[in-house]
Specification:
Helix content is about 45%, strand content about 10%. Bound molecules: glutamic acid. The site of glutamic acid has 9 residues, from strand 10.
């Protein structure tokens, strides 16, 4: 019996060969140096910040070179499938506007290199496995899970390298006849790659991020097709898919780098050119409790999963910039010099990615985000804020819709100017700093943050005098301020800071103490955006109402 006959016995219905697929998926017709990249997550968990980093880098590499970015659903580990994970991947890519050029989702396929879902590519993988069996580079292996456990135990005890290689690869040299007999007897098997490598022989591999690395050759007979569902293992699917989909650059988590010897040998077995690799760094964070730097954890750190940023309402571009800031050491400088360029024009340089790990910190994201939000027009911010609220806080959404004009006016305070206020790091942080603009919110227990002047009678005196004799909605800011100074002096406060500092005891307080009283009665806070603008939005009538609330509430 020949290997070919054995291959036919195992795959009787597979008639196509790798060469047929070679013709079916020809080299892509793209400009020179255009990069073909892919995001290839497994739906075994919800998309996390590490996945996001890969996706953004892939997107940048493809877009900045006029190439193609495609999405491949690596669903071969069906036992670990997580409901909703695939939908979430698509949602995140669309939400962040890093949509793939080619993909398959909800019955729709876009692109000529599909199927883009691995479980739908079984026939293709089988053609490649069949070919390897025919040429004697793969074989059915009948080791049972318990036999494999025994081998591992033995290897551990006797301090040998773990794995199925050399004498442990018991079925590697079995004749096709014997193998065929076992198969006919219904014995379970996986298909293993038949390695030609020599572990004592080294080769040099160049990773675009990690640099040149010396590896021992692979000599493990690794499973390439599982017995349970006849699906390929990750390694084999990587070879077949990235070859046929004409990937030029593989961006993947650093944990895969140890598989390079195997991937190198697999590509060599078919005579295919390997793509270029960028093994990304681990995402690290400073532990809040003990200050040590550790790997970000999906279990412990809510910011590890991509839900977090959407729920908090970070602008999408701020999140992408934060990711690129940790991914490439020259991104920040590029962003400073190109504040308005789309992020995907950034020439991502794999060499400028720290091989040891990327430190992610939320303060950094907050700063980037504050900057982004401060540059939005008031009406853009209103729309973004409302969109967020509609998804995450109905109550706020209603207030925003019922008070659209005033909300935009409020958001416009110290905005649309050269140096805008930078007080919101995300959409969820706006309401705690603006609730006081909505009369409906004044029915709760209020926490007035008065400063030096906190005596109720004195406050009422100031406010009554201010509202009856001083404040006029029609005044300009200068007119208002001049009138405040007069009232200040009249009531025993110093309108002139210099004079006050010379003789503080001669006054009840300064003009700053005086205006703080007005600010706190109207907003409960001692710090707010420009008070004059706030009063212009409120108008006198509502200011009087707030004074009445103060009279009832303040003890
Ligand atoms: N499915 C693999 C993972 O999620 C993909 C690795 C790769 O990009 O090749 O880790």
């Amino acid at each position: 019996m020949t290997n070919k006959e054995l291959a036919d016995l195992i795959f009787p219905n597979i008639t196509k060969t790798p060469s047929d697929y070679e013709l079916e998926y020809p080299a892509r017709n793209l400009p020179e140096n255009a990069k073909v990249t892919r995001f290839a997550p497994s739906p075994t968990g919800f998309m996390h910040i590490g996945n996001m980093m890969s996706a953004v880098i892939n997107y940048c590499l493809a877009k900045s070179s006029g190439g193609v970015f495609f999405l491949r659903n690596e669903d071969t580990d069906q036992a670990r499938f997580v409901e909703g994970a695939t939908e979430f991947i698509h949602h995140i890519l669309n939400y962040y506007k890093i949509s793939p050029d080619e993909y398959e989702f909800n019955g729709e396929t876009v692109g000529n290199y599909g199927p883009y879902i691995q479980s739908e590519r079984k026939e293709i993988y089988h053609a490649f496995v069949k070919y390897l069996i025919e040429i004697g580079r793969a074989y059915p292996c009948f080791l049972t899970p318990s036999e494999i456990d025994e081998i591992r135990e033995y290897q551990t005890k006797s301090k040998k390298r773990i794995g199925i290689y050399g004498k442990y690869a018991k079925y590697r040299d079995m004749t096709p006849e014997d193998a065929a007999q076992k198969i006919k007897n219904g014995e379970k098997f996986v298909i293993r790659f038949k390695s030609n490598g020599n572990f004592n022989q080294k080769f040099i591999f160049e990773d675009l991020t990690q640099g040149k690395i010396e590896f021992p050759e692979n000599d493990l007979d690794v499973p390439i097709m599982k017995s349970s569902d006849l699906l390929p293992t990750y390694h084999f699917a990587h070879l077949v898919d990235d070859h046929l989909m004409r990937t030029t650059h593989v961006v993947r988590g650093g944990e895969w780098i140890s598989s390079i010897p195997l991937h190198y040998e697999l590509f060599k077995a078919f005579g295919y050119k390997m793509p270029k690799y960028i093994h990304t760094s681990l995402i690290l964070k400073k532990d809040e409790e003990n200050g040590t730097i550790r790997k970000i954890s999906k279990r412990k750190d809510p910011e590890a999963l991509m839900f977090y940023y959407e729920e908090k309402g970070y602008p999408i571009l701020a999140v992408i910039d934060a990711v690129l800031t940790i991914a490439n050491s020259n991104f920040e400088e590029w962003r400073t010099n190109n504040p308005d360029k789309p992020f995907y024009e950034f020439p991502f340089s794999p060499k400028k990615m720290s091989p040891s790990g990327a430190l992610f910190d939320l303060d950094k994201l907050d700063n980037i985000s504050k900057n982004y939000i401060s540059k939005m027009s008031a009406s853009t911010l209103y729309n973004e804020y409302l969109t967020w609220a509609k998804n995450y806080d109905e109550h706020i959404a209603k207030l925003l819709e019922n008070h659209k004009e005033d909300t935009i006016k409020f958001l416009n305070i110290e905005r649309e100017i050269k140096k805008p206020r930078k007080d919101y790091e995300n959409y969820s942080s706006i309401f705690p700093k603006s609730w006081y603009m909505y009369d409906e919110e004044w029915d709760k227990d209020l926490n007035y943050k008065f400063g030096k002047i906190n005596n109720k009678e004195e406050i009422i005196k100031i406010m009554e005098e201010y509202l009856t004799t001083c404040y006029d909605d029609k005044d300009t800011q200068d007119e208002w301020f001049n009138k405040i100074k007069v009232l200040c002096d009249k009531l025993g406060y110093a309108s002139d800071m210099k004079k006050y500092k010379e003789n503080p005891d001669n006054y009840k307080g300064s003009i700053a103490d005086f205006t703080t009283v007005i600010r706190v009665v109207l907003t409960t806070y001692d710090m707010t955006p420009n008070l004059y603008d706030i009063m212009q939005i409120l108008g006198k009538e509502r200011m009087v109402k707030r004074l009445n609330i103060f009279k009832e509430q303040y003890k």
